[in-house]
Amino acid sequence: MQIGEHVYSFHNGFKSDNALDFSKRSSFDCDVMLERVYPTRIILPMLQHCGEECVPTVRVGSHVTIGQCIGAPSPGSFAVPIHSGISGNVTAIKPITLPTGNTCQAVYIESDRKRTYHSSIRPRNDVNVSAAQVMGIVRDSGVVGMGGEGIPTIAKINRARKLKVKQLLVNCLQSEPFAACDYLRIGEYADYIIMGAVAMAGACGVKVINILISKEHKYEITALKSAMERSCTEYSGYAFNFKFMKQRYPQGYYRMVSKALYGVELKENETLEEKCKAVLFNCSTIYSCWEAIKDGIPLVSRVISISTENGISHNVLAPIGTPVSELLDSVNGMTNTSKRIIWGNHLTGIEINNPNDTPIIKTTSGVCVVNRSEISVAPCSGCGKCVDACPMDLEPVILHSLLISGKQDKADEFFARRCISCGACSYVCPSGLDLTGVIAAYSSSRRSQVRYPYSSVNDRINIGGASLLEAYTEQEQVQQVKDTNAFTLPFEGGKIV
After folding, report:
1. Are strands 366-370 and 55-56 parallel, antiparallel or unpaired?
2. How does DSSP assign 194-261, residue by residue?
3. What is the pLDDT of residue 284?
4. Is domain 41-111 in CATH 3.90.930, yes or no?
5. Of the four, 48, 280, 311, 454, which is 20 to 30 A from 149 by CA?
């Protein structure tokens, strides 16, 4: 384990000096999980990832259990399966439109209050698994990038192997105000993150694991160090390094990581794997991968940070598909129709009007409740704060002016499509201009649905009607043996759990 003193970062962005000051969140970062949420029903959209819609594998009236596959990818589609986080009966299968604008089928399940697990959900006695088995488990457990983009994790592994990356990066850089679900995972389940990182590194074919984290998070750093010390005798041949990053928003975005660590400015459609020979996984994603490997549990729940603009915040563990209204009701009746409810975090979330019918999905890390207030809008003063804050080195005020004037082609010349919708420019604008809303809407409209280029024919996922955590077929295992990159993860003597 190596710990460097150099602190990495990108240019611009911002660190707030008021109530949103990230350095003042230590008490919330260490906040224990409030409780597990047991909803009366869940709504499971068949499109919760970057890619194509799944097909329901159940019917109205079907009884389902926790961990059961209720949505599977069509053969050859770019998708991963979806599983139930509660036991109960399917009451409806009908279209739903998510706050992102995506419309797809959704499976509605009414809880039977029994919390019965599917018979196949059981801990793995021996996790001395091969790289092929790790890939099969990650694929069939439906794990996707939980930092927000929702790229199927198996697709990132496939691409990392194909491009022969040299490093695995563990993203512990959650930097949006009041968001702390990742820090809770690190503090409470550091062993899962360390062992998951080893498993993912083995699957990707790399030996170097770099943990990206801010020095301010001393509690989480200590937890990770302790987990490494406890686990160091159970694996060999892997080098762990801490790469300390500045506590700056939006530090954890992969383009910012590329700038900070490697000095590489990624163009549109370029990837870390291709340009920097590194693959980046969110720490909560890695936790879910190890949970699937060790405990046999697919991705059926996640930690959600529930917060207000005043900093009153809690972390809860909820089944994926829990309606936002039930999530808020679990926190001292936080639901208040007079307030704005944000699906997501404060700067990047989307306001919703129907919390009863809007569920959390695999990529939802937070829900915010903020006061309604009239924002005073004034003409641009030319202060340049938005330019200083933009992490992509854009000129938001010029782009905003061009777009509201209908000059889209001219906006393209100023690289409007590079906007990452972080919200920094609007946050710092003293005139109250909706810079992010205008620019991000245009940027998103010009991109394809699969924004991260993983959807080539060679990367497509074909699991057909796979259910739960099925292993590879004998034929697939033979193919993996012939692969010179195939190996067994070096848990000495087989790690018994």
Report:
1. unpaired
2. HHHHHHHHHHHT--EEEEEEETT-HHHHHHHHHHHHHHGGG--S-EEEEEEE-S-BTTTSHHHHIIII
3. 95
4. no
5. 311
Tell me which of 87 and 433 has the higher pLDDT: 87
- CATH code 3.40.50.2020 for 301-370: no
Q: Which CATH number describes the domain made up of 2-30+127-297?
A: 3.40.50.11540
Q: Do 305 and 181 form a contact (C-beta atoms < 8 A)?
A: yes
Integer Cα distance of 156 and 161 in angstroms: 9
% of the chain at pLDDT higher than 70? 80
Provide the sign of the torsion angle of the four alpha carbons 431, 436, 442, 443, taken in this order.
Answer: positive
Residues of the chain with CATH 3.40.50.11540: 2-30+127-297
Helical (H) or strand (E) element with 63: strand 63-64
From 153, 125, 127, 122, select the one nearest 48 (Cα to Cα): 153
Residue 44's identity, in one-letter code, is: L
Rounded to whole angstroms, the maximal C-alpha distance in the chain is 68
* Per-residue exposure over 405-430, b if at least 16 CB sit within 10 Å of its own CB, e if not: eeeeeebeebbbebbbbbbbbbbbbe
Span between the terminal Cα atoms of the chain, in Å: 24
Q: How confident is the model at residue 105 (pLDDT cuts 50, 70, 90)?
A: very high
d(CA 355, CA 343): 9
Cβ–Cβ < 8 Å for 490, 237: yes
Q: Which amino acid is at 238?
A: Y
In terms of Cα–Cα distance, which of 158, 236, 229 is closest to 200? Answer: 158
CB 166 within 8 A of CB 206: yes
In this structure, what token pair is assigned to residue 10? 């990108």
What are the tokens at 283?
Answer: 């720490």
**Please, what is the average pLDDT of the chain?**
81
Contact 96, 43 (CB under 8 A): yes
Of 39, 53, 82, 96, the C-alpha closest to 357 is 96
Instruction: Return the SS3 of 403.
Output: helix
Give the residue among 42, 35, 85, 39 at the shortest CA–CA distance from 314: 35
Q: Helix H segments across 346-457?
A: 385-389, 396-404, 408-413, 424-428, 435-445
CB 175, CB 148: distance < 8 Å: no
Domain with CATH 2.40.50 in the chain: 41-111
Weakest mean pLDDT among 24-33, 290-299, 409-418, 436-445 = 24-33
Give the span between the Cα atoms of 57 and 69, in whole angstroms.
7
Instruction: Examine the pLDDT at 53 and tell me if it is beyond 90.
Output: yes
* 243 closest CA partner among 497, 1, 493, 483: 1
